[in-house]
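#struct-pred
JK: can someone run the complex with heme C? inputs below
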Amino acid sequence: MKKIHVLYGAIIGVLLLVIAGLVYKFLLAGKTVTTEDRRTAIIMEPAERAFVLEEMRALLDAIRAMTDAVARDDMKKVAAAARAVGLAAAQHVPAAVAAKLPLEFKTMGRGVHAEFDRIALDAEAMGDGKHTLTQMGELLGRCVACHAIYQINPAAAPPK
Ligand code: HEC
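RT: done, structure tokens with the ligand placed:
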């Protein structure tokens, strides 16, 4: 009887280790190397990199549309442009891409999308362009912070 308990214990222990390993690999670590400029390069297939970069360009375009709308005092447009890249827009990241992103990257990315939603809500509720600009300044700080840490695939070697 005792021997069987020990055996069960060992099996459960091994399974827990496997689960912990899987959680680390798929949820926490992502797939990365350290680059020459000491940023962390996330390793991705070309199509996956293209997906992320397209999302990034959409973020920049939202910032452009929001800046333009604030300048013209069109707070409805500010809200629409911000909401277009809010959390709802971030739901369709393919599982293969998500698995390669470190947890910290996903947390920062989610925070940025959530901030766009908050800016949209405030623009509608307050209609105060100066407040929007203050929020956008803080938001751009988050873009800068992530770009300082991460890159996608190590840069190619310079031509000889
Ligand atoms: C969670 C991390 C993260 C956040 C937050 C983030 N970015 Fe990026 N962004 C990246 C990475 C990584 C790259 C690829 C850089 C590289 O490989 O050199 C990138 C690239 C870009 C590019 C280049 C796209 C291309 O086609 O080459 C633009 C533009 C961009 N980001 C805009 C933004 C803007 C605007 C924000 C904020 C509203 C933002 N990003 C927030 C990680 C982030």
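RT: quick notes.
DSSP finds six helices and three strands in the chain.
The first strand starts at residue 32 and ends at 34.
JK: thanks, will look after standup
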